[in-house]
Amino acid sequence: MSSKPLLPAARVHSAGGRWIYAVDQASAAPRATAPHSHARGQLFGTDVGVLTVQTGASRCVVPAAQAVWIPPGVTHGAQTHGPFVGWAVYLAPEACEDLPGAPCTLSMSVLLRAAIARAATWTEAPLDPKQQRIAAVIADEIRALAPAPTALPMPVDTRLRNIADALIADPADTRRLREWADWAAVAPRTLTRRFAVETGYAFETWRHRLRMMCALERLAAGAPVTTVALDLGYDNVSAFIARFRATFGITPGRYAAGGCAGLTLTS
Prior knowledge:
Blueprint: H1 9-12, E1 20-27, E2 32-36, E3 41-46, E4 50-55, E5 58-63, E6 66-70, E7 76-81, E8 84-91, E9 104-107, H2 110-119, H3 129-144, E10 151-153, H4 158-169, H5 177-184, H6 188-199, H7 203-220, H8 225-231, H9 237-248, H10 252-256
Antiparallel strand pairs: 1-8, 2-7, 3-6, 3-8, 4-5, 4-7, 5-10, 6-9
Helix pairs in contact: 2-3, 8-9
């Protein structure tokens, strides 16, 4: 597991210098970074597999062909699953003024990915006119990216957050809503109402989405479909496959075989 920064810390934590930096990186080992923040805004993603990004308000699972945007100063941690083939763009604060003010997942464009790959080859020298034009295309494309609904909002209420954290630690836990309410010392009706208000999802819907995100992580790391189904608490593989297809529009077998381009949540 690698934790080496994609870009030297002096660049990431400084708002000065060139207004844009880009990097491509690949490694046989997965990557993991502890919660941190930096002065620059960051857009990053993978070309292969998925990455998980945790902020205070949400947990995002980002497949290939999607990206996650982190505004300047926002604390976040990230982990990839399986070998890492990824990229990142770092923008000075003044270039982030008309970009989203909160972390979000976005659908990538082919043009943006190609421009980032070109920018990742640039030296330390100031940008020349041609490079400035490519950098402007990168900024324009980031502004034009459409949202991708792969974030899983986290509840704010401490009792509900404890339940969410417990399910993230063990998504196969099969306790029903009333049992979780007893565990967290909250009335079942309060749990039902507040969970929907704070996350936008009913409790069971939120749990199913969490399991599907965990499925993406495990499949990207090479786990067999049957193992993933059982590890996530499904009684049989058929039920897991049906849920996965209803959520992402493809079977887990096809996803594991590389059929993940443009993967989006459908339910």
